[in-house]
Design goal:
With 208 residues, the chain is of the alpha+beta class. The protein is built from 5 helices and 4 strands, in the order H-H-H-H-E-E-H-E-E. It has 2 domains: 66 residues; 102 residues, Ribosomal protein S6/Translation elongation factor EF1B (Alpha-Beta Plaits, 2-Layer Sandwich), CATH 3.30.70.60. The longest helix is centred in the first third of the chain and has 65 residues. The protein starts with a helix and ends in a 5-residue tail after the last strand. Keywords: Membrane, Transmembrane, Transmembrane helix.
């Protein structure tokens, strides 16, 4: 049994020695093995050395991608805000007109001033004018839109009265005329016809 073991040992020893001699004797084989081992070594160390760098680059790429998406969303929001601001700037001139057209509270003084302006413009005389009682200050009786009722009488010639009536309907402050009556002027100082008018002016009835 001991002789068999020695025999196998000698056989493998002779084999490795022959391989070693062949390696030393052939320069091309030696060079090939050295290059192969160098490449394997470089590859192994390269993987471990470059792995953190590769992971860092991948993380930076994902971060840049996320930031680009965020920038796109921000640009979209900025564009929407700019569009809204431009629309507001374009319509800003209309806002005071809207507030005047339908006031938040009854404004009898402003309405009477407009009536006087129309009468002067259309050359008619105001015989009388009254406005129904409204709440100017304090708690409103009800929420929602309200209406300020009025009645009045003007005198003048037919053409001027017709123009006054048309201008009254076309006031910036919307006027709803419920009744008008044309008759001969009863006032001794008035000459021509008399026009009796009843109607209302809406307002938003905001809480004070």
């Amino acid at each position: 049994m001991a002789l068999g073991w020695k025999k196998e040992y000698l056989r493998y020893t002779a084999y490795f020695l022959s391989v070693q001699n062949a390696y030393k004797g052939r320069a091309d084989l030696k060079m090939f093995l050295e290059i192969l081992l160098s490449l394997v070594t470089i590859s192994i160390f390269g993987v471990f050395a470059l792995r953190p760098t590769i992971l860092t680059i991948a993380g930076l790429y994902q971060e840049i991608k996320t930031k680009k998406e965020t920038l796109v969303q921000m640009d979209s929001k900025i564009t929407s805000l700019q569009s809204a601001q431009n629309t507001l700037n374009e319509q800003s001139a209309i806002l005071p007109i809207l507030e005047t057209s339908i006031p938040t509270d009854p404004e009898p003084e402003d309405f009477i001033r407009q009536i006087r302006g129309l009468a002067n413009k259309d050359s008619v005389s105001i015989s009388g004018f009254s406005i129904e009682k409204v709440t100017l200050k304090g708690e409103a009786t009800s929420e929602g839109t309200g209406a300020m009722s009025f009645s009045g009488a003007v005198a003048g010639n037919y053409t001027n009265l017709l123009t006054f009536l048309q201008d009254l309907e076309n006031l910036r402050m919307p006027v709803s005329i419920s009744l008008f009556n044309l008759s001969l002027a009863k006032d001794k100082e008035a000459v021509g016809l008399g026009l009796a008018i009843s109607g209302s002016v809406p307002y938003l009835n905001a809480k004070n």
